[in-house]
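Hi R.,

As promised on Friday, here is the backbone we talked about, encoded as structure tokens. Could you run it through your design pipeline when you get a chance and send me back a sequence?
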């Protein structure tokens, strides 16, 4: 069985952390709002990327 490279492990951990944060936002009731400015995020964008935490004005600040 092939082993994961360190790079793969980092990428997997990063995604799982994002999932954790998304679930926390879901429980806290802030899932559908931008993490930065609090505006509602479009449903279609969340369907396309369920880990999205920011509105289009704040793309890289998750
Ligand atoms: Zn925003």
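Update: got your reply. Pasting your designed sequence below so it's all in one thread:
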């Amino acid at each position: 069985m092939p082993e994961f490279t360190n790079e793969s492990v980092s990428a997997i951990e990063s995604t799982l952390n994002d999932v954790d944060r998304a679930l926390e936002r879901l429980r806290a009731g802030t899932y559908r709002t931008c993490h930065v400015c609090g505006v509602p995020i479009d449903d279609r964008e969340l369907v396309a990327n369920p880990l999205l935490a920011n509105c289009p004005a704040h793309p890289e600040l998750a």
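One thing I noticed while checking it: Residues 11 and 17 are 10 Å apart (CA to CA).

Thanks again,
M.
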